[in-house]
Write the structure tokens for this entry.
Amino acid sequence: MLTLSQISRFYGDTVALDGVDFVVPEDTYMSLLGASGSGKTTLLRLIAGFEEPNHGEISINSKRIDGQAPHLRDIGFVFQNFALFPHLSVAENVAFGLRYRAENPLSNNSEILDRTQEALKLVGLDGFGHRGVGAISGGQRQRVALARTLVCEPRIVLLDEPLGALDANLRARMCDELRAIRERLGVSFLHVTGSETEALTMGDEVAVLANGRITQSDAPDTLFSQPRTAEAARHMNAWNTFDGGLCGDALSNQEIAVRFDQMEVCAPGTAPQDHLSLKAQYLTGEFNGPTALSFFRASDGSLLQIIDHLSQPRLPDLIEGQDYDLHFSSNALRQFHGAA
Amino acid sequence: MQSGILRPALATYTALFLLFLYGPMIVLAILSFQSIDGGPQFPIRDWSTYWYQHLLGLAESSRVSQLPVGESLVRSILLAFMTTVVSTILGVMSAEAFRTKFKGSGPAFYLIILGMMVPGVLVGLGMALLSNTLGIGRAWWSTSFVLHVVYTYPFAFLIMLAIFNRFDRTVEEASFSLGVPPAQTFRRVTFPIIFPGVLSAMLFSFTLSYDEFARTLFTAGRDLTLPLSIYGTFSVEIYPNIFAFGVLTTLFSFTLLVIYGLLMKRFTAKASRFSGQEDAA
């Protein structure tokens, strides 16, 4: 179990991380979701030991690891750019850790060969060992990076946007494979990403990093349907967060959130009595294939989105620039205390 | 754009420029094939390889004494080799240090660079005075050697700095994360990747030291290096054997360059990148 308590990291006056408390349990696929610049890569680098926190403690199984040299931490790291050793072949890349690590290096060539083969087989690269790392594709490099890390059997594997450099098709496939590989090995993965879809798909648990803190850490469905903070809701990219005062005085001074798919549109003044409603101007629509997004601007300037599924259209015909009432049932509402 | 005229014009200009650049060397090469009774100028009386034979001591006795370059050539090569080793090691180590900002890195940087900026005559003279004051004898392998290192080390340092500037630090971090300690990481990852840069640093150090004149002039003491002894022969009378020698040393330099090129090619070909992305099967 990896535990971070009160981890802070500054760069001059810039605060990257501000008291992060975070736990990655054993045998878990943990996704860490954060916008770019939220400090998620910094967090991984602190855990790996490439940088040290200004405050706080990092421990694995209650033993502190902060302050320890990175090569003694026994933590695997898969880089966004893969960081393969360009002068070595695929097999030499994978065997590298086994051969040259400080603790318990292997010198028996046939054992190294066996374990390298095994690792390559695990990631589906059987027979690629002799290739140069310049002569394989992006997806294959990703697998080599993974095999190289896994073959050393680290206590936890950190993945820094591991799918970021792959195209969309490949990404979807690697998602499934990463999960499958992790389940087979039983080691915890901490997967950092900026994509909510990726985080929700991959994670047994998803943590949201915002404003230098972990704002919520939960199972994907819980996080998606019941975000506890406005930041968490915003990161799901499925919630409109706005000032409750727009719907009447009862909710004023609260930030509230309603999911894109739980808002309805009607002509001004025709909203059902039992629904909460607000006035907004229709800006434009965006067709995404199976879904369509409609954008509205509320009177205080906040942007609201409503999603419509092609198979079950529920929105009236909308005219750009016209005002409409947006309404939703009070069950759909999530309230966060404190002003927006 | 008027590229119809511009391109041939630029091409001609470049060709002329290169000709101008190598003109002196070409003249020298032609004159080295002067016949036995010809002088160090045109016209060529007759084509021969006499002066090459003379240079190598293969010619029959001659009115011209043999060029006294044998020992100084060995000295120069030895000195250049020593300088190369020391400067390159220092250059790599200090460039490695400059990868992270440290206190006083600014002044340290300029102090290192100063070694290649200050006029050689001045440093040479200064070194001569200093060694006299301290009572240290001057010799090509001591005082000159120190100055050669002072002179070539900044070049090696700058080259390595440029190499490290483009160096992707994550491969080192990847190595650490595999449990490999820093020393092994340097040996197995960093060094092989920066090796082309190291070769360049070595080439620069070697050539700069090999034909260094001003600094050596004041500090070499009794035993001369090659540039000094060639210069010494000028004061007597010039014969085409010097040209023959010039051609041979140029060939030697070219050989070094070819070796450098081949090594470069070998080490960069391995790291050549496949840039596309295909389906991972």
